[in-house]
């Protein structure tokens, strides 16, 4: 349904978000200022004792500094009432005394049609529930008992039974006056190819109603009682109500539980979800008989920014995890990822909670692996990297995988973690080189050890206080002038920073590029990274004296300062990269003496460069050709002690 221009603006102007939110929370009146419409309360979306949920009644928005939920009055109604946007508009319009505009006739007709189908599905669900209690459902009841599914759980998930026979449901629904066309359109029966009566889609199966977030029954899943049936599990066909690639089993209840702070778990099937929910782990969903789709992944992220994928530890489960990695990589962002919980081989979540208890499952979820580690496992497990060619092939496959990540800053962090894992893999058990003499200095050094020490010694000389100060000024400018984060996004996404504090602050800034109010941004940063890192940043004298850091600074000067600081930082990083590339060329010929002599030579070269920069009126950061210079040291065999 389309709304006339200005309707939503008028609705928001007539509504008080404080009144809307006030129905769901208890205001902290010690912290709130009711006269100014500045209200605080414990967050209704996650468990907490402190009042970190803020409502600005004059501006009409809410924000939680704990779980980062944010939105306006309509968004709050959608989240807390579990309704669609248009339903939220209708609720708010009634409260504001506004008349909803007339519906488009075609849209109304389509909505009525879906309502009719949903009603037919509800009647089918009730029929299946009753059938489970009859004599025909005895075998199904025995099966559920063996699976230790209590009556309470069966009632909660509305488990039913489709009896054997071709027209049981068909005859029941038509006998109640339901139009044959609606039964067929709902996917509950199929037309006969032989000219006979339509026949039931589900026969001799335990039935699981599939409901949308609004609790409407949109489909069914059925488990075959006959072990020789062609399909152990069968879902409803796709209909006007049901698109299996856009639906999740247990969506509504899981969303509600995740909103209260539970980690969202993605299991493989109905029985896993039911078993976990019965054990008290309620924030659990399952895709409907297929691999997770792109749309389902987006649905998961709307529920939780980091769902935990719980898969069986068998070959099929691992294959599913690996496929999901490729689907997810292009869609990842700083606040949108996933973790993986691989269960012990031979156990699914249902087996685990029945044999070892719910705490065993919670522990596995708490220790779930980040996506990058499963990616690394996929590329390295069971492979031998005993030759340069095999190592190069690994590097190539990893580069191809990381190139799929669209978020530049995230791609950079993935690269750093992969680089760390690579170094760990190749240097974990360094082995001596072939025996022999090395320019009169004894046996060859161990591969990796000398090179690492050489590299660390050289790079340490380029990582100095000046770079950290430049980083601090850049971050301070972005905090004082939030709109610049969006303007310089491409540069900032690939910016490597020293120290955890600086990286945390930049990450938070990149997650909140839509927040343009400096004061609100500071509150967000304090909630996400803590007060101490920000106080440390602002206490630096280099930051305090920078004119561009002041909120009132001239915007042209501010942009010029930011661009200049980024350019100078990149110039220094260019020198570091050239040094690192040159040191890689020393692989196999380095020892401690070389480390010291090349380090001294590089320092002398840097000092010369700085002096030249000052004499030329520059900033002393001209990189020259450091790689060529180091190569000349290699060509001159600097590691060989010259006789006096």
From TrEMBL:
Asked if Magnesium is a keyword of the record, the answer is yes
Residue ranges of domain Toprim in the record: 262-344
**Start-end of CHC2-type zinc fingers:** 43-67
- GO BP annotations, alphabetical order: DNA replication, synthesis of primer
Q: Please give the Gene Ontology molecular function terms for this protein.
A: DNA binding; DNA-directed RNA polymerase activity; zinc ion binding
Enzymatic reactions: ssDNA + n NTP = ssDNA/pppN(pN)n-1 hybrid + (n-1) diphosphate
Its cofactor is: Zn(2+)
Database matches in InterPro entries? DNA_primase_core_N_sf, DNA_primase_DnaB-bd, DNA_primase_DnaG, DNA_primase_Znf_CHC2, DnaG_bac, DNAG_N, DnaG_primase, TOPRIM_DnaG_bac
Name the domain of life this protein comes from. Bacteria
Q: Which residues form the signal peptide?
A: none
Q: How is the cofactor bound?
A: Binds 1 zinc ion per monomer.
Gene Ontology cellular component list = cytoplasm; DNA-directed RNA polymerase complex; primosome complex
Q: Which Gene3D superfamilies match?
A: 3.40.1360.10, DNA primase, catalytic core, N-terminal domain, Zinc finger, CHC2-type domain
User: Is-annotated flag, keyword rRNA processing?
Assistant: no
The record's EC number reads: 2.7.7.101
Q: Which UniProt keywords apply?
A: DNA replication, DNA-binding, DNA-directed RNA polymerase, Magnesium, Metal-binding, Nucleotidyltransferase, Primosome, Transcription, Transferase, Zinc, Zinc-finger
UniProt subunit comment: Monomer. Interacts with DnaB.
Described function: RNA polymerase that catalyzes the synthesis of short RNA molecules used as primers for DNA polymerase during DNA replication.
> Mind telling me which NCBIfam families this protein's record contains?
dnaG
Q: Regarding domains, what does the record say?
A: Contains an N-terminal zinc-binding domain, a central core domain that contains the primase activity, and a C-terminal DnaB-binding domain.
Q: What is the similarity comment for this entry? A: Belongs to the DnaG primase family.
Q: What is this protein called?
A: DNA primase
